[in-house]
Amino acid sequence: MIGESFTEEKKVEIANKIKAIELKTVEKEFKELQKIGIDAFKISERSRIGNNIVDYFTFTQRLNTRGKYNVNYFEFIANLEYFKEKKFIQNMLNYYETVKNKNKNKNDYIVWKEVYNICISAINIMRPIVYMEIYSKYKPNAILDFCAGWGGALVASSALNIPKYIGIEINNHLLKSYEKLQEFVSQYSSTEINMFFQDALSVDYEKLDYDLVFTSPPYYFIQRYENNVVYETKQQMDELFYKPLFSKTYLHLKKGGHYILNVNREVYERVCVNLLGPADEEYPYKKSKRQNNYQEIVYVWNK
Prior knowledge:
Number of helices: 12
CATH superfamily of the largest domain: Vaccinia Virus protein VP39
Mean pLDDT: 92
Number of strands: 7
Low-confidence stretches: 288-292
Strand order of the largest sheet: 3-2-1-4-5-7-6
Order of helices and strands: HHHHHHHHEHEHEEHEHEE
Strand content: 5-15%
CATH topology of the largest domain: Rossmann fold
Helix content: 40-55%
Distance between the termini: 50 Å
Number of domains: 2
């Protein structure tokens, strides 16, 4: 049976051994984002400016996300001997031992994380700089992000001093992280931040005031986030998650606003076209060419 018994303190210690980020780095990057401002579109797709801010506050929780085999990173390293029985994982560990990390420049936790990324699941974030580019293009006064995730949208909206950011997140394990993140950005930003830790399907959107929706909802079976409902089929996820959620959030978007989703082509064709019609704009999600070939698209509907 797969399991792990790390304390929360130990998980934080492990996360820090993978990414040791100092507060001064976070402060420096936030000021850099503010300086970039509406010129975010000029920044290279390889830029990681702002990522350290997200990682400083939510990286430990991200390591609890389940990928292939329904296993998260902590469970992977706690049961490493079991996973070594899988030939491709053992081969990858051997490759790091004899080639990629033969000089021992990386500690074991980093090596295991890279092997986990390759063999099980890479738990990526949407970079704040990408959010900033889209926000700058559509110039919202109030943003709704109904799958707030790891905090990149909150960072971006705060860096741009967007008047209001509304985030909804089902994973209440992120509550303390978001509280700390919100406390941090409030030192530098005038953005009003409203975070709701609940199921996005249970929110009364009629009571919210927003003129832009931009979010990246979970995709079919790729990763399993804490507290998320597990759907048995794509059809079930379409009917019980995507369709009611997209319908509700679009219905209460202000007239003249923009409804923007970062989803793969399959979700767009199975759900969005029938529900919202063909997108008014679409373009590839801006990411480094060094990342995998998995293609995501940003779809925009003008209301």
